[in-house]
Amino acid sequence: MFNRKRKATTMTAAINLTTIVDPTSVITEQIKTIRTNINFAATDHKLRTLMITSATLGEGKSTVSANLAVEYANEGMQVLLVDADLRRPTIHKTFGLSNQRGLSSWLGHQTTDINKAIQPTIDNLFVMTSGPKPPNPAELLGSQMMTEFLTSATRKLDLVIVDAPPILPVTDSQLLANKVDGTVLVVRQNVAQKAAVRDAVTALKRSHANILGTVLNDVSDGQHNGYYGYNNGYYSDEKK
């Protein structure tokens, strides 16, 4: 399905890929913990598609998505990271990739060769960038073709991670929620409002999402005051 020849890739500063530039850091260890806890939360069924989202803008969902994808790839899994934030994409900048073709190109029938929309990066990790901004993001993400794409990708790869738009500003993630096996909500300390998080969870449940848990982002643990990390970042009990 995909061209597996790996390109030389230049990482940029759009998102800090700590899992690559500092693999022994506290933050990388927290990403590994998040990965482990996601696996535990999905023990009832095999996790093949995972959506990462947030209630509002600026909570770090793309940072979590990209670093999780790297960690799963480092474990030897064949991973596809999909930038489904068609309105405000960042993944192509993070991995130093062209965004001339991507998810919108494929869903909008602007390319019929999937290899032109999916690009290899580090070992075991492929990226599908967002592609050019379409006039109808919600319609594309909610389409049957998106469902078929995810189904097809999981036949070839071990895990598809979808970096989805925030829930409250647009309906995109609600349309995606029932197309994936599990959803993780990123909540950033001192940014997210409790009411917004509650509304986001309600919207996901209304969309029949399988909410695996929440990443609490950008928290100081007292020993690393001010560090950008995850501080016991994942919990699977929504009531906490």
Automatic annotation (TrEMBL):
<comment type="pathway">
    <text>Capsule biogenesis; capsule polysaccharide biosynthesis.</text>
</comment>
<keyword id="KW-0547">Nucleotide-binding</keyword>
<keyword id="KW-0418">Kinase</keyword>
<keyword id="KW-0972">Capsule biogenesis/degradation</keyword>
<dbReference type="InterPro" id="IPR005702">
    <property type="entry name" value="Wzc-like_C"/>
</dbReference>
<dbReference type="InterPro" id="IPR027417">
    <property type="entry name" value="P-loop_NTPase"/>
</dbReference>
<dbReference type="GO" id="GO:0004715">
    <property type="term" value="F:non-membrane spanning protein tyrosine kinase activity"/>
</dbReference>
<dbReference type="Pfam" id="PF10609">
    <property type="entry name" value="ParA"/>
</dbReference>
<keyword id="KW-0067">ATP-binding</keyword>
<dbReference type="InterPro" id="IPR033756">
    <property type="entry name" value="YlxH/NBP35"/>
</dbReference>
<dbReference type="InterPro" id="IPR050445">
    <property type="entry name" value="Bact_polysacc_biosynth/exp"/>
</dbReference>
<protein>
    <submittedName>
        <fullName>CpsD/CapB family tyrosine-protein kinase</fullName>
        <ecNumber>2.7.10.2</ecNumber>
    </submittedName>
</protein>
<keyword id="KW-0808">Transferase</keyword>
<keyword id="KW-0270">Exopolysaccharide synthesis</keyword>
